[in-house]
C-alpha cells in the first residue's frame, strides 16, 4: 500500500468546544472528504488537555473531564467536580494535560487563588477513581517513553524561571558515541579510529615509524598496528552529580585471544577524580553492575584492551548509538520546603447501596513522626466532618488517648460525638497534609450501622 493509499483511509477526530465529529478522508479526491454528524455532544474546551489514554482520548469538557472511546464520551471526573469549577475561565486555553501511569494529570490556573499562570495540578487516578491536588506551576508535559527511554514524565514551569522537572527519580545516562568525545580522553597504546559518527577504539598507535624511538630490532615480531599487547583508553573527567550508579555498557569484538575490561574512579572535583584510586575491573559489556561503587560528583572511565597475539586486537566500537555508556541516578535539588498532599475518594455507598448509614468509629492505620494529617468526610448533603492526627505522638506513651499500636504501626481511633453521629447515604473521604514530612496512611476501617428502609401502613 502506497503512502497516498494509507493517507486515504485515515479518519480524523475533530474536537470542537461543543461536539466531537469524525473527518472521513477515504475518498480519492479531497473535495469528496466529509465530516460526520457529531458522535459526542460533549466537546473539548481546552485543546492542550486532550491526550491519548488507555480507554480513549481524555480531555476537559465544559462540565468535567471526559473520555472519548471513538463513539461516545463518558464523564470520569465526578469526584473532582468542584475542582473543575475552580479553573479560571480566561485561562482555559492554557490548561495542559498528560496521561502517565494510569493517571490523568491536568495543570490549570485556579480562580480562587487569583494567580495569573497555571498554579494547580490535578492528578486523577482513573483506575481507583481518586485524585491528588498539587500546587505546582506547570504549563506543559511530555512523556519520554519510546525506544530506550525509561518512561519518565517531564514538565515545564509556568513561571519565568525556565525550569524543567522530572516527576520520577529516573535514570540518567553518560554516553560516549562520537570520535571527538573519545579523543577528548587520553590513549596509552590504544588508537581511536573511524569517523566522527562511527568511531572505534583498538590497540595501536598514531605514531609513524619515523616518529618512534624504537628500532627494527626492538620491534621484534610485532607489527606497527599494535605496539603493545595491553593498552588503555582514559575517558575525559565528566561531572554527573550521581546519587546512585547503575550499569556500565560498551560494545566489543574479541578475536581468538584478548579481552576488554573497564574500571571507574570518582571524586568531589575533577582534580580529586584524577588522583582517586581505580575500582576493580568490570567485564560484562552488556551491562556491568557498578551500583556498589561509592558515588560522587565527577567520574572517569578506564578501558583496558589486551591481546595474546601481535596480529590481533579487540575492538570497542559504535553500535546502538553508543560506544561506552553508563546509567545512573542524579542528585535531586529540593525546590519546595512544603508539599500540599490531598487524596480524595469518589462517592461510596460503603457496601450498603443507597441505604442510610451511621458512621460510628474510624480506625486509621498510619505511619509518620512529624506533621498533622487532616481526615475529612462529607455526606454530600452539606454536612462535613473532620479530625486531625498528630503524627508526632507516640502511641505507647498513653493508654487513655486516641493513639494505639506501636511506633512503627500506629492506629488512630476517632469516635464521633454521640450528639452528632454522621449520617448519610453516600460519602466522600479526604486526607490532606502540608509539609515536607514523610507519612503513609495504609488503610482506613470504619464501623457503621446500615439502616434498612421500613414501610408502615
| Strand order of the biggest β-sheet | 8-9-10-11-28-35-30-31
Strand content: 35-45%
Overall spatial form: extended
Class computed from helices, strands and strand pairing:
mainly beta
Identify the quaternary structure here: single chain
Major beta-sheet overview: 8 strands, antiparallel
C-alpha end-to-end distance: 75 Å
The number of domains? 3
The count of strands amounts to: 36
Mean pLDDT: 83
Per DSSP, the total helix count is 5
Helix content: under 10%
| Contiguous runs where pLDDT drops below 50 for at least 5 residues | 1-11
Radius of gyration, taken over Cα atoms and rounded to an integer in Å: 32 Å
Structure description:
The chain is mainly β. Strand 4 and strand 5 form a beta hairpin.
Amino acid at each position: 500500500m502506497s503512502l497516498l493509499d494509507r493517507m486515504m483511509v485515515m479518519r480524523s477526530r475533530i474536537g470542537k468546544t461543543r461536539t466531537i465529529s469524525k473527518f472521513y478522508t477515504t475518498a480519492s479526491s479531497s473535495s469528496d472528504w466529509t465530516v460526520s454528524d457529531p458522535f459526542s455532544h460533549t466537546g473539548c474546551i481546552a485543546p492542550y488537555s486532550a491526550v491519548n489514554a488507555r480507554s480513549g482520548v481524555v480531555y476537559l469538557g465544559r462540565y468535567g473531564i471526559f473520555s472519548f472511546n471513538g463513539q461516545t464520551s463518558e464523564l470520569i471526573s465526578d469526584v473532582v467536580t468542584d475542582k473543575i469549577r475552580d479553573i479560571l475561565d480566561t485561562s482555559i486555553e492554557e490548561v495542559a494535560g498528560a496521561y502517565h501511569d494510569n493517571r490523568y494529570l491536568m495543570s490549570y490556573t485556579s480562580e480562587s487563588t487569583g494567580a495569573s499562570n497555571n498554579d494547580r495540578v490535578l492528578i486523577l487516578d482513573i483506575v481507583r477513581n481518586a485524585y491528588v491536588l498539587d500546587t505546582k506551576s506547570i504549563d506543559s508535559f511530555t512523556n519520554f517513553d519510546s525506544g530506550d527511554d525509561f518512561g519518565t514524565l517531564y514538565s515545564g514551569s509556568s513561571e519565568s524561571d525556565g525550569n524543567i522537572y522530572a516527576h520520577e527519580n529516573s535514570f540518567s545516562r553518560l554516553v560516549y558515541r562520537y570520535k571527538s568525545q573519545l579523543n577528548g580522553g587520553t590513549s596509552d597504546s590504544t588508537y581511536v579510529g573511524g569517523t566522527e559518527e562511527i568511531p572505534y577504539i583498538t590497540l595501536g598507535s598514531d605514531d609513524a615509524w619515523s616518529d618512534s624511538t624504537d628500532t627494527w630490532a626492538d620491534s621484534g615480531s610485532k607489527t606497527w598496528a599494535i605496539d603493545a599487547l595491553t593498552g588503555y583508553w582514559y575517558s575525559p573527567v565528566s561531572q554527573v552529580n550521581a546519587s546512585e550508579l547503575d550499569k556500565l555498557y560498551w560494545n566489543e569484538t574479541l578475536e581468538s585471544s584478548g579481552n576488554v575490561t573497564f574500571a571507574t574512579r570518582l571524586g568531589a572535583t575533577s582534580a580529586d577524580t584524577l588522583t582517586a584510586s581505580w575500582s576493580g575491573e568490570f567485564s560484562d559489556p552488556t551491562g556491568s553492575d557498578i551500583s556498589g561503587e561509592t558515588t560522587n560528583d565527577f567520574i572517569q572511565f578506564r578501558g583496558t584492551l589486551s591481546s595474546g597475539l601481535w596480529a590481533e586486537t579487540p575492538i570497542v566500537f559504535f553500535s546502538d548509538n553508543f560506544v561506552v555508556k553508563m546509567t545512573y541516578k542524579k542528585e535531586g535539588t529540593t525546590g519546595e520546603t512544603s508539599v500540599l498532599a490531598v487524596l480524595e475518594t469518589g462517592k461510596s455507598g460503603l457496601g450498603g447501596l443507597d441505604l442510610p448509614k451511621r458512621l460510628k468509629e474510624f480506625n486509621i492505620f498510619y505511619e509518620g513522626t512529624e506533621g498533622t494529617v487532616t481526615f475529612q468526610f462529607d455526606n454530600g448533603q452539606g454536612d462535613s466532618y473532620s479530625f486531625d492526627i498528630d503524627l508526632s505522638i507516640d502511641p505507647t506513651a498513653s493508654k487513655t488517648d486516641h493513639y494505639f499500636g506501636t511506633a512503627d504501626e500506629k492506629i488512630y481511633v476517632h469516635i464521633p460525638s454521640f450528639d452528632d453521629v454522621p449520617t448519610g447515604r453516600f460519602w466522600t473521604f479526604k486526607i490532606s497534609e502540608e509539609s515536607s514530612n514523610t507519612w503513609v496512611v495504609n488503610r482506613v476501617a470504619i464501623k457503621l450501622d446500615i439502616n434498612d428502609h421500613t414501610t408502615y401502613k
